[in-house]
Amino acid sequence: MNEKFQNILVVTSKYHVERSNPYLTNDLVHELSCHVKKVAVIGLGEKTIISSDGNVVENIIGIQSRIKFLKYFFIWPKLFISMVMILYKERNIDQIIIFAPLSVLWPAVLVSKLVKVKNKSVIVFDLFPIHQLQIGSIPSSLGPMAKWFESFLLSGFHKITAMGPNNKSYIERYYSTVSMKSDVTILPLWSRPVKVRSVVNFRSEVTKFVFGGQIIKGREVESMINFLQLMLDRGLKLSLDIYSRGEGFEYLKSKYPNADWIKFCDQVPRDEYFSMLSRYHIGLVVTDRRVTLPTFPSKILDYVNAGLISYCIVESETDVANLPINRPLLYLNHFDFSMDEVDKSIRFFNSVKLLDSIELEKSFVSLRKYFSVKSAVLRLLQ
Known about the structure:
With about 375 residues, the chain is an alpha/beta fold. It is built from 14 helices and 14 strands.
């Protein structure tokens, strides 16, 4: 039992109540519950749920509207009320953890500013609003006001966490007035331990690729497919399975109806997806070339857990390059789609097949320890 903090409140915009489909925040809450007396959760989900499971109390606010901006006008009053009620009921809360972007959860942040607890931490997954401005999801005219509001909400937190050293430096520059008053520390993304490992024969004739996740702004999945097509034309035998859903997914299905090397698969719960990953050699990651932020795509953690090599088409600023690895567990392509890069990537995929599987697994074990959710929790509770 942790002696410093024993009653935690976690506020997040992403939380899944289905036990077979957990999100990163679910993994963190579960691990927190193993180290403290009680964890209260306020989250956003598909339906309103108030439940208690052991020492975890979940208060999930259902999203009533599918219209992007309109839905928040339904959420924010409920979020304010939920925050007030939990802090009133659980008067012994000694740490509050809130996930950024805070502008989405601003009523909860404002309430947190009015209460005195030992520690208030914010976990920065998304650099708002600069990321949204770069991918065009919000108009540039809103940029200055959105940045000021996010900076205002960040002020007053004892600790701000960053996913890596590049991310930390960017936070300190972008929110400069905030970083001088808060402790910005590095908290790597985390993953719960899973007993899944790739069992595919690396010496097989066809290299099996997989991509899983939403196909939305900020992910150039179409560019990724076209790049793989160049490899196919160059003689690399490959297949690609895409697990997703939504408008972007349906668009790709309609655009590549005759690509027999691509299989479009319906999105499945995360636990089932984990078990399916053992069928593949290479896990694909792609961001957006317009983004100049040090991102860290979380799907890399899925691939590491399953023992898959990660092929990452990402910005040069990414914190992925700072991972503590000494073997080719991942490949970074900074949106270079030239024929020279095609040939270089093919050589990489062929070299992977020559790696010793036992030594490769040892490297994955080391990297899984780096991403341990237990390590993340212990850092938060310091």
